[in-house]
Amino acid sequence: MVKNKNQTWRPPLSDSLRQALLTAIFVSLIVQGLGEAQQTGPEPGGTSGGVLRAEISHSDTLPPLPPGMRAGEAYMNWAVQGGDSPYGLTNRTLRFEIPAWLAGRWQRTQSMETKRVELPSGKPVKAAGRTEAKVQEQFGTFVDGEGKIWQVFDPRRSKGEVDRGEAMDIHHVSKYNIEILDPKNVLVSVTATHLVVSKDKRMVLKSYQDEELNTYTLTGQGRARTDSSVKVFDQSGKPVLLTRSSSDVVKLEGVPANTGAGARGSR
Fold first, then answer.
1. Which of residues 209 and 57 earns the better pLDDT score?
2. Phi, psi dihedrals of residue 54, rounded to the nearest 5°
């Protein structure tokens, strides 16, 4: 689920990294449970007519990362997680019902970033604009006996890596949720922890978290639009960046009809 090499690390949220996280989530089926979305006012630089619910569902702050996940510490391969933890990592496999139109394999080729805002100041900075983003995403794990389509997520497979030259950006999904907003709109919410780890000494050089809200909207037969709002937090859980982007996706194939496979923990 990943991409892009850079000589020097800088704050995430280039569109390629955002798409890398999505690829990691949907191709490798990573997941966790997302509790109730925190209801807040519009983000700095936001508008009242943006992404469905994304304007009001970002968290104000996130819990700080625990010892073992902070800059200057030795990388412990996520050993500090244990079982359920205060910042959201769990060992519970989850499943979500999805609409038939969303089930299948989707492809996007480019994305348009329309907004980038520094936080907490609310200062706007230049958005990336249109960028290449070749990504395939898969929705739907099995069809049950009633014909309902389910997405199964296994938190044990919720990791991914981005090679950044002398360091690796290693991420782990801490919260995940799929919500059907109405017959044509589905909200996929993802929160992930990122550790930038040096290859030679295996030390944590940088750590941060991001919260991503992706609304998938059916626009035609086998076609949809994704509107994404991503908020980045530092290792202390304080917000540092907000971006907004959109892209068009095309369905390549439908979901396999694995009827009665509901007992499986992953696909």
1. 209
2. -65, -25
